[in-house]
């Protein structure tokens, strides 16, 4: 069955981006500290990875659709129109910038997160949906349409930046499905309890 | 000489209590198993899973003193002078409660974080000092006094509440690869603070 999964690298104190994030500085200052564990070298982020980094890169590439927040996609110009070749859905209250028309795989969904997730799941078929972006993940959690969280917990205290969870409208119980303990990161897979 | 440790239970989104200081939901792991742990405080008995029990027993056996903030001390009425961990408590406060010596004879009251750590070390001797208040942990981290950060992460998103880590003005604090203990309803992580 298709699951919607948030993949996120997070500092122990809950930050997923450094300060000053924006176009030209995606993820903010020192963003790479949270993603070193992938083992990227000088290649662009979608091609690298060693060890467990490669494992999770492959898992990500096996997903059948991407649901990503507007802040995320605009910082990386919609990954040039494709994320490992699958459709990208962007929930947003506002229509896309005109330039997005050149990306046939990118769909802006303006009638809510439930609709965006339903479209992403339909596009993914039997495969999972990869969820990107803190705000989008929180909205999906609040709406009850996020199934799992794959948190890569990084042994660092960031102290400032953009937090993953911030304020939620209600308490949400989770189950720990799997823990992978590696020197660079603690990979924890959670299922959202319904 | 013992180590300076910190231990807190927090939700995955980083809260140690809800906005009304309640810990139900975060502290579930203290009652989520079949292994009974009697504590030195007769009012507190824990029922945890086997691996959490082993971690708690080791922690209790190796702790020689605790450091608490004034707020937590007041919330718990000073644990009736008998903290469940057994060790004496050092409270960081500028104004000790009246009748402190009579009502809490095992508890000491010290004016600052650095002085509290020095005093707790004296009490603990070869054993460890455990800091168990978020605000004191933050100050001790900033001062570079913490050897190990222990966090029990509960699988729950609280959404709002009292955060464990506040914003820090300094550079990032780097931690070593944690020891990971997978308990029931909590993942226990023990990090060494990198110097």
CATH topology of chain A: Dihydrofolate Reductase, subunit A
Uncertain segments of chain A of ≥5 residues (pLDDT<50)?
none
Described by the principal axes of the CA atoms, the overall outline of chain B is globular
Main pleated sheet of chain B: 8 strands, mixed
- Give the CATH class of chain B: Alpha Beta
What percentage of amino acids of chain B are in beta strands?
25-35%
Q: Can you walk through the features of this model?
A:
The complex is a heterodimer of chains A (194) and B (195). Chain A has helices at residues 52-61, 70-75, 113-124, 134-143, and strands at residues 4-11, 15-17, 65-68, 88-91, 106-109, 129-132, 148-154, 156-157, 162-163, 172-181, 186-192. Chain A is an alpha/beta fold and 194 residues long. Chain A has one domain: Dihydrofolate Reductase, subunit A. Helix content of chain B is 23%, strand content 32%. The chains are: A alpha/beta (194), B alpha/beta (195).
Topology (elements, then pairings):
The complex is a heterodimer of chains A (about 190) and B (about 200).
Chain A: E1 4-11, E2 15-17, H1 52-61, E3 65-68, H2 70-75, E4 88-91, E5 106-109, H3 113-124, E6 129-132, H4 134-143, E7 148-154, E8 156-157, E9 162-163, E10 172-181, E11 186-192
Parallel strand pairs in A: 1-6, 1-7, 3-4, 3-6, 4-5
Antiparallel strand pairs in A: 2-9, 7-11, 10-11
Chain B: E1 4-11, E2 15-17, E3 35-38, E4 45-48, H1 50-62, E5 63-69, H2 70-75, E6 89-92, H3 100-103, E7 108-110, H4 113-124, E8 128-131, H5 134-142, E9 148-154, E10 156-157, E11 162-163, E12 173-174, E13 179-183, E14 186-192
Parallel strand pairs in B: 1-8, 1-9, 5-6, 5-8, 6-7
Antiparallel strand pairs in B: 2-11, 3-4, 9-14, 13-14
């Amino acid at each position: 069955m298709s699951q919607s999964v948030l993949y996120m690298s997070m500092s122990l104190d809950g930050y997923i981006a450094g300060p000053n994030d924006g176009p030209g500085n995606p993820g903010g200052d020192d963003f790479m500290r949270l993603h070193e564990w992938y083992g990227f070298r000088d290649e662009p982020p979608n091609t690298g990875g060693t060890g467990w980094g490669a494992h999770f890169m492959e898992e990500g590439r096996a997903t059948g659709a991407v649901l990503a927040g507007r802040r995320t996609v605009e910082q990386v110009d919609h990954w040039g129109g494709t994320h490992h070749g699958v459709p990208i859905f962007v929930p947003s209250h506002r229509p896309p910038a005109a330039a997005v028309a050149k990306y046939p795989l990118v769909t802006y969904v303006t009638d809510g997160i439930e609709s965006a997730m339903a479209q992403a799941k339909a596009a993914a078929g039997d495969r999972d949906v990869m969820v990107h972006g803190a705000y989008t993940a929180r909205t999906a959690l609040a709406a009850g349409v996020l199934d799992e969280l794959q948190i890569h917990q990084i042994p660092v205290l960031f102290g400032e930046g953009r937090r993953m969870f911030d304020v939620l409208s209600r308490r949400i119980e989770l189950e720990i499905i799997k823990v992978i303990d590696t020197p660079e990161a603690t990979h924890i897979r959670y299922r959202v309890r319904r | 000489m013992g180590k300076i440790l910190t231990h807190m239970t927090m939700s995955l989104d980083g809260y140690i209590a809800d906005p009304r200081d309640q810990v139900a939901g975060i502290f579930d792991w203290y009652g989520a198993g079949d292994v009974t742990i009697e504590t030195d405080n007769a009012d507190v008995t824990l029922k945890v899973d086997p691996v959490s029990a082993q971690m708690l027993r080791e922690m209790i056996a190796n702790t020689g003193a605790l450091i608490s903030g004034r707020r937590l001390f007041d919330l718990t009425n000073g644990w009736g002078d008998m903290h469940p961990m057994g060790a004496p408590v050092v409270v960081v406060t500028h104004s000790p409660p009246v009748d402190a010596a009579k009502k809490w004879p095992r508890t000491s009251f010290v004016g600052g974080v650095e002085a509290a750590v020095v005093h707790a070390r004296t009490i603990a001797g070869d054993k460890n000092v455990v800091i168990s208040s978020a605000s004191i942990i933050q100050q001790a981290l900033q001062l570079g006094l913490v050897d190990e950060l222990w966090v029990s992460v509960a699988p729950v998103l609280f959404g709002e509440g009292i955060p464990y880590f506040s914003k820090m003005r300094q550079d990032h604090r780097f931690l070593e690869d944690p020891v990971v203990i997978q308990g029931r309803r909590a993942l226990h992580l023990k990090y060494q603070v990198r110097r």
